[in-house]
Write a structure and sequence with these properties.
The chain contains twelve helices and eight strands. A hairpin with an 8-residue loop joins β1 (about 85-90) and β2. The chain has an eight-stranded mixed beta sheet with strand order 1-2-4-3-5-6-7-8, sandwiched between helices. With about 350 residues, the protein is an alpha/beta fold. It has helices at about 5-15, 15-25, 40-50, 65-70, 135-145, 160-180, 180-185, 195-210, 250-260, 295-310, 325-330, 335-350, and strands at about 85-90, 95-100, 115-120, 150-155, 185-195, 220-225, 285-290, 315-320.
Length: about 350
């Protein structure tokens, strides 16, 4: 097992704990979550289960360790893909937000030649993760697709709730469009993408930007996105969904930290939760990918279905027997590589097309 795979498994185990036991208690004695896992993924799922134990729930007390574990998922930036750190004004009383500009050509090509761009929002349940840790993955993607990537170091909860992090991502998108000429970017081919909480942030950003003609988003790529605060609070998943990796208990804590209030209730602001959006009109086309036993399975399927019903092109990929973050912890498996290929092809099509 590589350091990256071990760290991914450790994070998943950190947030398993009692939620797994409570869900399994209602199942037949013979039921084993591993039975539902794709055979290629079972070794990693078994390792995640083995690392779960008493005191492993996600809480304010364990959050610092979770953040350190997420940082361990990263690595040293690739030496052959340029990266620079930029400080972007957010406005008002907000501090500047850091962004990493990846695979920039300096100087930009003359004669009107432009490239597409991806605005990337990292995962981590709204409470952990970093753009810095995602640099090697984003560098590899930028090189693979010959595009620019801007990865956003948005503020985390509970230190900052949803208004602050949405302000950060919106400022980053505004900066990318304002600097498109200097960066050699085609503003009609800007894509937003994110995984897990980053997928939730990408969705929220697409919602916030749809009223601004100056901030077009050509496509949103949502990888097992975190979309609905009611999952695991007022809406409990059926066994074995959410029993391996990210669990209902983790979700309740993370959404509470992000919202600044208890998740699932009527007082939750709809502007903070993509799944609570009533009108889907005007949103960009989407790719939504999720595993069939991921805690976010149902909300991902519902969100993609709502986009389609609103007349918005959306591709939904459900990976049978896959748990949350399987493509990271088991990246060498055929099932993870097929998922990565589908995701990459969706990005390639979006980046090549013009609005």
């Amino acid at each position: 097992m590589t350091r990256r795979q071990f760290a991914a498994g450790a994070l998943a185990a950190m947030v398993s704990g009692s939620a797994l036991a409570k869900t399994a208690a209602d199942a037949p004695a013979s039921a084993d979550p591993l039975w539902f896992v794709d055979p290629d993924l079972r070794p990693e799922a078994r390792a995640i289960q083995a690392m779960a134990g008493p005191g492993s729930d996600l809480t304010r007390e364990t959050l610092p360790m979770v953040r350190r574990t997420m940082e361990a998922l990263g690595g040293q930036p690739l030496p052959d893909v340029p990266v620079r750190r930029e400080s972007v004004p957010v406005g008002g009383e907000h501090p500047d937000v850091a962004v990493y500009v990846i695979n920039e050509r300096s100087p930009p090509p003359r004669g009107g030649g432009t490239r597409p761009a991806i605005l990337h929002l990292h995962g981590g349940g709204f409470v952990a993760g970093s753009a810095r840790a995602s640099l090697p993955v984003m560098q590899a993607l930028a090189r693979r697709l010959d595009c620019l990537v801007v990865s956003v170091e948005y503020r985390l909860a509970p230190e900052t709730t949803w208004r602050g992090s949405i302000a950060d991502t919106y400022a980053a998108l505004s900066w990318l469009h304002a600097q498109a000429g200097a960066l050699g970017v085609d503003p009609a081919r800007v894509v937003v993408m994110g995984e897990s909480a980053g997928g939730g942030h990408a969705s929220l950003l697409a919602i916030a930007a749809r009223q601004s003609p100056k901030l077009p988003i050509a496509f949103q790529l949502l990888v097992y996105p975190m979309l609905d605060d009611r999952t695991g609070s007022t809406r409990m998943p059926a066994f074995p969904i959410g029993t391996i990796g990210w669990t209902a208990a983790a979700n309740r804590f993370a959404w509470g930290a992000f919202l600044g209030t208890e998740p699932g209730g009527s007082a939750v602001p709809s502007a903070a939760v993509p799944a609570r959006l009533e009108d889907m009109a005007g949103l960009p086309p989407a790719f939504v990918g999720v595993g069939s036993i991921d805690l976010f399975f149902e909300e991902s399927v519902v969100y993609a279905s709502r986009l389609i019903k609103a007349g918005i092109p959306a591709e939904l990929v459900v990976v049978p027997g896959a748990f949350h973050g399987f493509d990271v912890s088991a990246s060498a498996t055929p099932v993870a590589q097929r998922f990565d290929a589908a995701r990459t092809e969706a990005l390639r099509r979006a980046l090549q097309s013009r609005a």
